Amino acid sequence: MFTAQGEGGGGSPPIATEWSVEARGGGVCLVRVVNSLFASTDDWDNQLESTGLGWPGFFRTLRIYLTHFRGQRSAIMQFVAPVAGTEAEAWETLTAALRLKGLSVGQRWTAPAGVPALSGVAEYVSQSPYDAVLRLDKPGPGVAALGAYNFGGQSMVALNFYHYGDQAAGTVARETPLWQAWMQERFLMPTELSKSE
């Protein structure tokens, strides 16, 4: 068992998380995660609920890692950006830019021109919540977990890249500035949107 306490997002009270891993037969284990929010009122219940909604995506990534990349080194790139409009509009913006619309589980996919090198197979695609998980072969072996969500009334897009293998750290070092530039070009802050109009 492992426990940790951290600050909640948006000024919420601290959130404690407890992870337990229970061995099962056949080389399988059961992972449980429990979140606890320490508040004197129920004003923060939605914060705790939204924290719980994020876990399935991490478990999908863990399952892909254990199935295809077990024991390999890893390095992570994460990008989050606010988007003007609704959560659905944020997802539409992201999927249009990456040409993910209509992608089905098991389908191969390659990012269009103008996007840093990215290709692989769709492992999970959902419109509720707005999520996609891709097992990557370019720019190297890994996983891309993409989504759109609402955080405190602000629509956000998130791109999480998990790179695996001995070259993972080098891939992250090389690709991070490319993705930062791509994100800044497409996902301007709402205040910046109004300045450019």
Could you explain the architecture of this structure?
The chain is an alpha+beta fold and 197 residues long. The protein is 32% helix and 38% strand. The chain has helices at residues 45-69, 87-98, 168-186, 190-196; strands at residues 2-6, 15-23, 29-37, 74-83, 108-110, 119-127, 130-138, 142-151, 154-164. The strands form 2 sheets. Strands 4-9-8-7-6-5 form a 6-stranded antiparallel β-sheet, with helices on both faces. Strands 1-2-3 form a 3-stranded antiparallel β-sheet. The longest helix has 25 residues, at 45-69.
Topology:
Elements: E1 2-6, E2 15-23, E3 29-37, H1 45-69, E4 74-83, H2 87-98, E5 108-110, E6 119-127, E7 130-138, E8 142-151, E9 154-164, H3 168-186, H4 190-196
Antiparallel strand pairs: 1-2, 2-3, 4-9, 5-6, 6-7, 7-8, 8-9
Silhouette: globular
How large is the radius of gyration?
A: 18 Å
| Proportion of helical residues | 25-40%
Largest beta-sheet details: 6 strands, antiparallel
Detail the poorly predicted runs: 190-197
The first-to-last residue Cα distance is: 52 Å
Number of helices: 4
Strand content: 35-45%
According to DSSP, the number of beta strands is 9
Q: What is the strand arrangement across the widest sheet?
A: 4-9-8-7-6-5
Looking at how many chains there are and whether they match, the oligomeric state comes to single chain
- Rounded mean pLDDT score: 85
- Secondary-structure element pattern, one letter each: EEEHEHEEEEEHH
Structural class: alpha+beta
